[in-house]
Amino acid sequence: MSASDILFLIVAVVTVGSAAIVVLSRSLIYSAFSLLFTFFGVAIIYVYLGADFLAATQVLIYVGGILVLLLFGVMLTHRLYSLNLKTETFQVIPGFLIAFAVFISLALVSTRTQWHVVADKPLVPTTDMIGTLFLTEYLLPFEIASILLLVALIGAAMLVRRRTDV
Amino acid sequence: MIPISYYLLLSAILFSIGVFGTMIKRNMVTIFMCIELMLNAVNLSFVAFARYHSLIDGQVFVFFVMAVAAAEAAVGLGIIVALFRNRQTLNVDEADLMKW
Q: Within an 8 Å CB–CB cutoff, is residue B80 touching chain A?
């Protein structure tokens, strides 16, 4: 077992452990902060897979954007001084059984299948290849994604504004 | 080189944790976090397949997933804030106005 394998295992354990804390913790703030470690762990695994630009984007969008939005959501909807910052759990046993069934089926598929794997190629920077694909083959989805983001921005501002005209 | 099934197993574990959390939690913000967990798990397997097939297209897909996740986060948080303003609660069982 080489050093890089051991490092992969450590990162995987930290990622799964913090994901478990997200689900099992009763405090919303603890959940949000352990989600931070999960996102960072996934970013490190992207580095392992040679996706350098994607790892940077993961940190930028998930940690810098979505997590901050989530924390805003927590702060705006709970009074911080009250003890109401808890999240209750219900129906743990059926939920666990269903999640376990999902895991077993996914694990069986991923371990039993003979995946077609091409020979190990050397790692190269991916940024220019991704940019070329965005502006040639995936141009239409790229533009649709930008329109989707604009619509979502307008919709979010529309949803949370105070109604003054009614 | 680490076998691809390790990455897929890690992705499966993350996805199942997200499913578990979505089922047992009643707080809307926590359910939201679990949905982000599931999206991350799927992204992870996209990148793993992209690496082991020596294709970059899988990574391009992850960018689209991230764009949709960002849009979902913005609109979802807007809905959460609007719901809290009207109902003073985030319990999904009490947001049942449209339930038949």
A: yes
CATH code of the domain made up of B4-92: 1.10.287.3510
Rounded CA separation B67/A152 (Å): 10
Domain ranges of chain B: 4-92
Can you give the pTM of this predicted structure?
Answer: 0.90
Pairwise CB contact (< 8 Å): A19 & B79:
no
Q: Is A164 exposed, middle or buried (0-12, 13-18, 19+ CB in 10 A)?
A: exposed
Closest residue in A to B13 (Cα) is A103
Picking from A35, A54, A118, A134 by the largest number of B CB atoms within 10 A of its own CB, the best residue to mutate is: A54
pLDDT in tens, chain A (166 residues): 788 889 999 999 999 999 999 998 888 888 889 999 999 999 999 998 888 999 999 999 998 889 998 888 888 777 655 555 566 777 888 999 999 999 999 999 988 888 888 877 778 888 999 999 999 999 999 999 999 999 999 999 888 887 776 5
